[in-house]
Design brief:
Blueprint lengths: L14 E5 L5 H13 L15 E5 L10 H4 L1 E5 L6 E5 H7 L1 H10 L7 H7 L1 E3 L13 E2 L5
């Protein structure tokens, strides 16, 4: 028997819609990362982009377990000396929840050249409105 290796031209992509309301951040991010990579497909090949598009709505209503809203921080640096900025996840969820979910998914993807390609297929919106109705996304039910 010969080993079948999937080619990028043979991949059939779908669009999925995920409602993030009342879902835990880490569990949601791991499931979304798996769909972006295409881990659920039978012909999964780790070195080929096989993933589907994922549209996440209601990102502003994601829950955090325990006291992470106050104790966990998101750090960024401006590039200047002393330019480190620190924001709690509770404030980040209120102001820019897309960044919170994007960073969680990004850190769960492999650290190689495909990561940037996977992240381009992730669309996150803080409320329930999104401009991807023409793609007819299927509702992806995730365990809550």
């Amino acid at each position: 028997m010969k080993t079948f290796i999937m080619k990028p031209a043979d991949v059939k992509r779908e669009w999925f819609l995920v409602d993030a309301k009342d879902m835990v951040l880490g569990r949601l991010a791991s499931l979304v990362a798996g769909v972006l990579r295409g881990k659920g497909k039978v012909q999964f090949t780790p070195n080929v982009d096989m993933g589907d598009f994922v549209v996440v709505v209601n990102a502003g209503k994601i829950t955090l377990t325990g006291a992470k809203a106050d104790d966990k921080f998101y750090y960024r640096h401006t590039g200047y000396p002393g330019g480190i900025k620190k924001v709690s996840y509770g404030d980040l969820r209120e102001n820019r929840p897309e960044i919170m979910l994007t960073q969680a998914v990004k850190r769960m993807l492999p650290r190689n050249k495909l990561r940037k390609i996977f992240l381009r297929k992730l669309k996150i919106y803080s409320d329930d409105k999104h401009p991807h109705l023409a793609q007819q996304p299927k509702l992806l039910e995730l365990a809550r």
